[in-house]
Amino acid sequence: MSRNFGKLLVSLALPAILVAVTLIAAPASAAQAVRLQYRTSAPGATTAQAEPWLRLFNDGTTTIPLNQVKIRYYLTGTETYRFACSWAVVGCATITGRFAPQEGGKQYLEVGFTSGSLSPGQNTSDMQLRFYRADWQTFAQSDDYSYGANTAYTNWDKVTVYVNGQLAWGNPTGTDPDPDPDPDPTDPPGGGTGELFDDFTYSSSTDPRLAQRGWTVRSSSGGPGVPGATWSPGAVSFPGGLLTLDSSTNGTAAGTVQTELSTASRKFHEGTYAARVRFSDAPTSGPDGEHVVQTFFTITPLAYNLDPNYGELDFEYLPNGGWGEPSNILYATSWETYQGEPWQAVNTHTEERTSFAGWHDLVIQVSGGRIKYYVDGRLFADHGDIYYPETPMWIMFNQWFIDLQGVTGTRTYRQQVDYLYHSKNEVVPPATVLSRVAALRAAGTAFKDTVPNP
Fold first, then answer.
1. CB count in 10 Å sphere of residue 3
2. How many Å separate Cα 64 from the centre of its chain?
3. Cβ contacts of residue 232 below 8 Å, gap of 6+?
4. Architecture category of domain 28-169 in CATH
């Protein structure tokens, strides 16, 4: 390294260091004074689920947009946890939660908001939050930094509050002072170059607006799934603005119906993909037990065996297992390519073996050579290398059967989708996805597509 170049690096680094010190050390302004109160409804030292209840106060003189607020609750241990909101005056739909690791076997739960504001002299009132281990094992919470056994609200400085990235309340612990990590430096700057949003307000699978807006309801035969099964548009419906896939079988190929909705255009590559999907563990009718696959994914067609231009990014939920798995499992899988006969898969996957029944916000970020999968704001998987997609893809939802169990009686499984959102060439954090979707709905937007055709 030349002497002058070293000086240049130092001159560039010093302002960055000063800015970082300023961001970490700057006190909250008097105009934006906040205070947090805490209590718990699960005070035991060991519990199946921690239940921190929070109230955020605005003791300042200016209104605080809640989407600028991050609240951190600090834990000991590296176990995988799930976050939930039981009830909140501000509305659970506006509250997000994600877990982030810290050095030394610690982590924190970061609570955020997608919308709303807090006026001077007001508070959020109850936010009844909870979190639990993904495997539902009990855990000790008495050694968690933010835990307290008090069952009445008390000012609590072991839970921190950040406003616009600045510490506004409490005493943090551990590493990673940034309350909302920025995207990777390789992420494309300047925002997206087109948006797709669909609220799925259609009358039926024969609604002409589906084709006008670039959707295809599958009726053609073929894989995946049971050979000889029917892909039925009639089993695709939109009650209450929810894309609904009802797949059924009576244990025979001729009596098996599978369902799929796909974009007609392959114009989606780098950027952010998001959908709120409802997975189900049990059939809506008939006996349980089929190996069914419920999905949200993007895909490029395979031109030939081991085609290097093939790509596929999957969320796949198996409520009854399959592929050698004995029970429910959620996969995030990134594909480089495959061949059919003999079977050879070139992919990488991350999985969690637990029930994911219910509604979940699923996000896939594709940028800078990395594919990041999020479930309810939590980073679920991070893939890259040869598995990064090279070519534009379709967006799809489908529900199909791996095989048949041959049980007498027809059984029907249901998967539903509340919305689809895509931003081309932009990494959008999961919380921002929710705020954008909320803003589109508040504006009365049922459909938007500004993504350019290839």
1. 7
2. 26
3. 219, 257, 258, 259
4. Sandwich (2.60)
